[in-house]
Design brief:
With 506 residues, the chain is an alpha/beta fold. It contains 13 helices and 19 strands. Helix 12 packs across helix 13.
Length: 506
């Protein structure tokens, strides 16, 4: 699905359209920082701790779970990648119900759905004026249908955010390979999607770039595309070939054990930022496959840093499009729960693909699994045992630790970057899940922590971790205790801990 994505991610990306200085005056957050020649190692670490998400990045992270809807001619040809030669006549869902797609998604806890408005085959799910390879030449609704319109309307009805996937690779367009003409064509299609369907909350590109009908390689004018999106839909995040959100590096649904959202920026953009050009800069690391993307060792070698969080994508089925043979291979509720712990629970946002079938409906097996997953998740996190605990710490605002909010936080006194927080429950309780959240509006700071319980007058280690970020979830064998403590052993500056939770899985 993401062919050539690593090569493409080495490109400089520009968010465009806003003066840097004016932008920073209008909002308190700063999602990038430059290092200066006189900065010491301590200065760099301190600056790293202050980098925070932009408003659009924060809103995106808070959703936690988003959905992908892969649907198109591949659904009817039983393929994963079409070649662009498909006849529009194959697209003919018999009972398409976008309201069912969105309702099922919402009931599963999904906050935004992204529709594959155009995949690599170039077939458009809206009646684009710029190609004949679209629903307007299909038998569905006698060529009068518009899938994008129906999904956008359903999202508005159910209060779910809406995003579009527009494949840069187009295996049908005769313009593909003629870079200037194709980039104009792509801008025209972007304009249709971003002006005719109301608010768009996410625009999703991948890095696939093969040959088109001409056999020529296409140069994607990403900078122009990003500037256009910022102009037409300024609140939309651009992922994962974009400046707001990056691909985690795997399609398994499992993120890194150590996931930093603050990463070194590419060196190519230094002059542009330093000159305060008319474009606000966003960046992609040269290699997103490393296990270590944002450690102190990486930061100290960098010239600048950027807030660039991870999206963790996976399909509920082996494939991304619907295939009848996979009806008995839908991920179980337990598997989806494991993925949740390993994506959202590792400082990422989960992007779960749920492909509609040839009827134009989410299949019954998918619905059953999603329903079971939602029940498991709700039951697991129904009761935070720490809300009844007494808290002992030298820090400030201990009530924030269990108030259920991520915009309030506990922090240490003075400039302490380490801390111990002790909890005493009213009575002995059993638990097997630890939740931690930082107030990321003030940055991502925690580097190491240890969680212990008191047994027979001695402290016993239960689990430990590295990064926290927006959310960290750790599972362990069930233990019983009345007294427990969290030790923050390494932090880039004063910790800003928003939430702590203890739970028992059903």
């Amino acid at each position: 699905m993401k062919a050539n994505i690593i090569t493409a991610l080495a490109l400089l990306v520009v968010t465009g359209g806003t003066n840097v200085q004016a932008q920073q005056k209008n909002r308190q957050d700063k999602n990038y920082v430059l290092f200066h020649e006189k900065d010491t190692d301590a200065d760099k670490i301190s600056k790293a701790a202050q980098v925070a998400p932009s408003p659009r990045q924060l809103s995106w992270q808070q959703m936690e779970i988003t959905g992908f809807l892969h649907f198109g001619v591949n659904t009817f040809t039983n393929k994963e990648w079409g070649d662009g030669s498909e006849s529009p006549s194959v697209f003919n869902p018999t009972a398409l119900d976008a309201r069912q797609w969105v309702k099922v998604s919402k009931e599963a806890g999904i906050k935004l759905v992204i529709l594959t408005a155009k995949h690599h085959d170039g077939f458009c799910l809206w009646p684009s004026a710029y190609t004949e390879h679209s629903v307007k030449n299909s038998p569905w609704k006698n060529g009068q249908g518009d899938v994008v319109k129906e999904v956008a309307a359903a999202c508005k009805e159910y209060g779910v955010k809406f995003g579009v996937y527009l494949s840069p690779w187009d295996r049908n367009s005769a313009f593909f390979g003629d870079s200037a003409k194709y980039n104009d064509y792509f801008i025209n299609q972007l304009t249709e999607l971003l002006t005719n369907y109301g608010r768009i909350d996410e625009v999703w590109f991948d890095g696939a770039n093969g040959e088109g009908p001409t056999g020529k390689k296409q140069y994607y004018d990403y900078n122009r595309w990003y500037t256009h999106i910022r102009k037409l839909q300024p609140t939309a995040v651009i992922a994962v070939m974009g400046p707001d959100v990056r691909w985690v590096g795997t399609e398994s649904g499992y993120g890194r054990e150590t996931e930093w959202s603050v990463l070194p920026a590419d060196e190519m953009i230094q002059d542009k930022i330093a000159a305060n050009s008319q474009q606000a800069a966003g960046f992609a690391p040269m290699n997103l496959m490393d296990d270590d993307l944002g450690s102190r060792a990486k930061i100290l070698k960098a010239k600048s840093l950027v807030w660039y969080p991870a999206e963790t994508d996976v399909s509920i089925r082996p494939g991304w499009f619907y295939h009848p043979a996979e009806d008995n291979q839908v991920k179980t509720p337990e598997k989806l729960m494991d993925i949740y712990f390993s994506s959202v629970g590792r400082n990422g946002v989960l992007l779960l693909n749920i492909p509609p079938d040839t009827r134009g409906l989410i299949h019954e097996q998918d619905v059953k699994s999603l329903t079971g997953w939602k029940k498991l998740k709700d039951r697991t996190f129904a009761n935070n045992l720490l809300r009844r605990a007494s808290i002992t710490t030298k820090g400030k605002n201990t009530k924030a630790l269990v108030d259920g909010r991520t915009d309030t936080d506990w922090t240490t006194t003075g400039k302490d970057s380490t801390a111990v927080i002790t909890f005493t429950l009213p009575n002995e309780q059993e638990f097997d899940v630890l939740l931690l959240q930082e107030n990321i509006t003030k940055g991502q700071r925690i580097e190491n922590f240890v969680f212990e319980i008191e047994q027979d007058g001695k402290w016993k280690k239960v689990t430990a971790g590295t990064t926290v970020g927006y959310k960290r979830l750790l599972r362990f064998a069930p233990v019983k205790a009345k007294k427990l403590r969290l030790s923050i052993t390494n932090c880039r500056t004063q910790p800003v801990l928003a939430e702590i939770g203890l739970y028992k899985q059903p």
